[in-house]
Predict the 3D structure of the following.
Amino acid sequence: MAKYASEQLAHAEPPLRARWCALIAHIARTEDARALGFLLEALKDSDARTRRTAASALGRMRAPDSEGPLLDALAVEQDRATTRALLQSLGKLGGARSLEPLARFVAADPETARVLTEARMKLGRDLSRGDQTCIDAEREPPQPLPIHFHCRAGLEALVERELPAEFQARALGPALVSARLARRLSDVFRSRVATHVGFPLPEVAAPGPDAMEDAVVHALTSDYAVEVLRTFTRGPIRYRLHWHDAGHRRGLTYRVASAVSARRPELVNDPQQSPWEARVSVSHQSVRVELCPRRLEDPRFWYRVADVPAASHPTIAAALASSAGVRPHDFVWDPCVGSGLELAERGLLGPYAALWGTDLAPGALDAARRNLDAARLSGVQLVRADARHFRPPRPVDLLITNPPFGRRAHTAGEVESFYGALLENARAVLAPGGLVVWISPLFEVTVRLAERLGLQTKTRRRVDMGGFKAELQLFVNGQR
């Protein structure tokens, strides 16, 4: 096919020459790499559209042998549109050889200047990838830095309680806790409930849409932002932009990245291999930017080696365990054990007497066994049984679970019936002072059911479960 297309290209007249060239480009990507030679030859074609098609195709192929011919073509090309195609391709596949020619190239018009700037930026980014870069979690800032802990909305108080006093943690609003980092970055993992952290940059006024772009650039290139990035980055500083609730915004991302690069050349925008994410939130009057470490190894849930569909997120399991607290005599039962994360989190939190889990799904019990073994917890028993009828061998001090609901149960009636039967069984097996700690999507219904059975409601936290609300509820069997 490539040979036939090349023969047609040799005898065709414009605009068919460009179309045959496009066909060869398609074949080169998917069928026959030998067509590369035909595309390189087409860079010298007398028809500008054919040269332009060949230049674009070579950029998509990213063949290293194309760099020299593309640079040679750029040096003599007169057609502006083809010049831009050559620059775009060199930005994609160029190496160190392209640095000097692109640095001294002079654009003839604003659009070519824009393409040239983007090509230079991509080239610098790709070349810097050869240098190892990472976030060093063991580094300490020269002075305490403000830091934000993010969590599921409704769990802010638990994050506050987890963090040592030196963090000076306080809730700022839904899903957000403000603190200060005085020591190693790895200390942020003292919170098992938080989902991620970020360093907030000083808010920048942006009185209108036209000021937003400059405000983001000002925040990212500030001395404070660079200090944060330098403190915790080992190697070149690479970041990506994330526009909160605003999609990709490719044009705006390019303009901001270009302006940042011009002011701070050490900051490289890299959407694919960046250890940092600059999360931008825009209001009518201001711009807020937060520097979030993306490639920071999270050591908290090392034991999670197996999973099952619709299992708890580990931070939710940690929230349940934190709400329950630690009593060394606790006989703990998870009636809907799933992958075992609730038992694992409670076991890792502190002393207990025994950990029991039940489930009807053999796959869930297997996953739970693997996770609990990985957590190296003793006193664990896993049994295939129905949570509504199973009776543990001794009174239960803590029933901790995230029961099935939503996609794991088909109708609201089924959910209510299951929760009701589970509560009745819980009341029958709980020791005096025993606790029930669980997640319920039926806020008022399960509270009424529990209190009707003689359980006292001690905690209700409305939690964002990722698209819908549920409550973290804690009931006590008599006075604790």
The first helix runs from residue 2 to 11. The mean pLDDT is 88. DSSP finds 17 helices and 18 strands in the chain. The first strand starts at residue 134 and ends at 135.
